[in-house]
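help with these tokens:
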Amino acid sequence: MEETYVMVKPDGVQRGLVGEIISRIERRGFKIVALRMNFIDEDTAKEHYAEHKEKPFFDSLIAYVTSGPSVSMIVQGKNAISIMRTINGATNPVDASPGTIRGDFAIETGRNIVHASDSQEAARREISIHFGEKESVDYRKIDEVCLYE
């Protein structure tokens, strides 16, 4: 099964959307194998968003993601990376379809509620930044027989 990193950003936490987002993930059939609420420190935020270091929005992105608590998850399931990106919706909420998290709850790119890894490489890197090796739980969900062939 594929794993991906998902974060409910500080705006999602402040707006009380954590339960809604987790519910959407679980209703889709994915399992959450690690979950933590914390304040991401500046060094961790810079490591997480390193690919944006030279972009003009980098400093404001770091200030935003460290401004309040966020919720980090490892989400597991078949095609978890691409499906989570679809569940989240387009990065710019103006382009996000209704029914997606960003399409339903976000207005501006700088406050777009959620993050999900965009590739297997990014997922491995982001999971290693936010979770230790022994922090995920391996278990079988009773409904897996109904989800997978």
Summary: Residues 31 and 76 are 5 Å apart (CA to CA). Strands lie at 2-8, 31-38, 70-77, 114-116. Residues 2-134 form a domain with the Alpha-Beta Plaits fold (CATH 3.30.70.141).
